[in-house]
């Protein structure tokens, strides 16, 4: 048996692994690589040929860096099944089509921009919305703990990874070995979701290591801080702008606000979720209460977790634009999460110059993004090519992260098996991986940090 490390090796995106067994070959995740433009385009356009020929694809969760290249695989001729949980399938129904539309839009934009250059060769989108739709027809779903055999003699079970709705760690039993692909591992006590489950007696563990060298702010302080921010905004009649990823983070923020309103800690001020993708994904959350944790079900007593009296979901562009002139206090939650595109950019342009307003950063902001510059509280910020003063208050809440911190990762590896033969660290920057590898080695585990393209015999 061999493992192929095809992506998310010494980096955090482009998750893709292969498992070659005597009975057949499996691909675990087929994620999009997200980095510098040129490199990303090359890597996403040329999938490893090994991946095109597998017997089945297994998908851990809906994040684009895990699922985003499934439509390319199908476009290139993959006709087999794509196994995942029902919630992940339903999230992908929106996310992959949205991603297809973005690819089409980007290709059109670049061809128009450089079309007059005689050396320009028109580019094709990596895939189109119709490829995503075709791929969705190949999805086959299994609930958590419901084992199945994608290839005769190879057993697969999804375990709850507690990272985003529907997320799974994938346990594969083949040739007498138990191989666990952790996928992205969530944190304990995240809102809505159950805590990550850790399958035991594992022989080989392929584990994420995003936060291998650090911890996050405590989840418990999120409510307190949000309440303080909203109450101050009410006093100043200001706008609270929350850039948020459409998947999970938006629903968590809405759920936290709904708890605060119901507890009477904040006034029910007008709150808008202004992102068509987030609105659709929230509906998927409503459709999958089987993924909620006990506390959420208890708190709800049948009520809508993602709705309260003063909350509105905005679809149309007109309604979104009308928010520019709507007086505060109000809250706007909008995508994209790093403020690089989408409606959030318009809301920021419209709000950051006033001292009455607040921008709340609730997600990771990568280098060279508008969100990062705001989080760093630069005095001036360029939006749509124009420099503007950043006078609005900026609050950074880092308690929302959906990834397990260092201690939890160490614990995960420990619980996965006392007799673990090898831990492979993936999905992390190299510094983070080295630091975690050291900690695991100290605990007598054999650890490897594979590089991209490496093939290892088990
Ligand atoms: Zn993820």
Give the helix proportion (percent range): 25-40%
The gross shape turns out to be: globular
CATH superfamily of the largest domain: Ribonuclease Z/Hydroxyacylglutathione hydrolase-like
Poorly predicted spans: none
Kindly report the spatial arrangement of strands forming the biggest sheet: 6-5-4-3-2-1-22
Strand residues, percent: 15-25%
Distance between the termini: 6 Å
Specify the biggest β-sheet.
7 strands, mixed
Assigned CATH architecture of the largest domain: 4-Layer Sandwich
- Note the total helix count: 15
Question: Helices, strands, pairings?
Answer:
Blueprint: E1 2-7, E2 16-20, E3 25-28, H1 37-45, H2 49-52, E4 56-58, H3 64-67, H4 70-75, E5 82-84, H5 86-114, H6 129-136, E6 139-141, E7 148-151, E8 154-160, E9 168-174, E10 177-181, E11 204-208, H7 221-236, E12 239-243, H8 249-263, E13 271-274, H9 276-287, H10 294-300, E14 311-314, H11 317-322, E15 330-334, H12 343-351, E16 358-361, H13 370-375, E17 380-383, E18 386-389, E19 393-396, H14 406-416, E20 422-426, H15 430-442, E21 447-448, E22 455-457
Parallel strand pairs: 3-4, 4-5, 5-6, 10-11, 11-20, 12-15, 12-16, 13-14, 13-15, 16-19, 20-21
Antiparallel strand pairs: 1-2, 1-22, 2-3, 7-8, 8-9, 9-10, 17-18
Helix pairs in contact: 5-6, 5-9
The protein binds zinc ion.
Zinc ion binds at residues 61, 63, 163, 184.
